[in-house]
Write a structure and sequence with these properties.
Elements: H1 2-37, H2 54-61, H3 67-77, H4 97-109
The structure holds heme C.
């Protein structure tokens, strides 16, 4: 009985680590990709530059069911400007769907 309980506790701990590892991997992959593609020329994590801060974007859309679709399109096609300020965001034809999905997932996880 005791052993069984220990196993459950161990399994739960392993699961918690696995979830955290997933989030950490997303963050690392996002930062590598964002640096390579120049996102940080216009975005910072925690303060607006030319574009809004990534944390502000996460806070604005985090609970919005249509957000993944919307942000995917902005990253792929660029924007016309006018949502956050007058500046527009360039389009990113060189990113794969998987890369964009990872970026969207990570940005929307920010608070
Ligand atoms: C040349 C500057 C520039 C670069 C480079 C850039 N952005 Fe942006 N981004 C902007 C601006 C400006 C806005 C605000 C646009 C608006 O108000 O319509 C924006 C908005 C966004 C938004 C929010 C869209 C919305 O509808 O609210 C996301 C998400 C985003 N950028 C992600 C990225 C990612 C990911 C990259 C790199 C692949 C990137 N940006 C590179 C300037 C840039």
């Amino acid at each position: 009985m005791k052993i069984r309980r220990l196993n459950i506790a161990a399994a739960m701990t392993a699961l918690m680590f696995a979830c955290q590892a997933g989030a950490t991997e997303d963050a690392a992959a996002f930062k590598t990709l964002a640096k390579k593609k120049g996102c940080f020329n216009c975005h910072r994590m925690d303060k607006p530059v030319l574009g809004p801060s990534l944390e502000d974007i996460g806070r604005k859309y985090g609970k919005d069911a249509g957000a993944p679709d919307r942000l995917f399109k902005v990253i792929r096609n660029g924007s016309k400007g006018g949502v956050w300020g007058d500046a527009a965001m360039p389009r990113y034809a060189g990113l794969s769907d998987d890369e964009i999905n990872l970026m969207v997932r990570y940005i929307l996880s920010l608070k």
